[in-house]
Design a protein that fits this description.
The protein is largely without helices or strands. It has one helix at 11-16; strands at residues 18-20, 58-60. Residues 8-64 form the RNA polymerase Rpb2 domain.
């Protein structure tokens, strides 16, 4: 788990709402797991994702979601 360094008020919330996909080497070059599935609407934020090789593999719950 990332350290909870408090840079602003929403930083700890963002870290706790992160959903990481498995770090399997065999899926590194696949594009299908990185696509936004229609069932994610309202439960996963498609805009908040890291840059680089983990793009699309780390997903975040929207800030205003209270329950899934």
């Amino acid at each position: 788990m990332n350290s909870l360094i408090k840079r602003n008020e929403l930083d700890p919330v963002a870290v706790l709402r992160t959903i990481s996909a498995p770090k399997d080497v065999s899926t590194r070059k696949l594009t299908a797991p990185r696509h936004v599935h229609p069932s994610f609407y309202g439960s996963i934020c498609p805009l908040e994702t890291p840059d680089g090789p983990r793009i699309g593999m780390v997903r975040n719950m929207p800030k205003m979601t209270s329950k899934l």
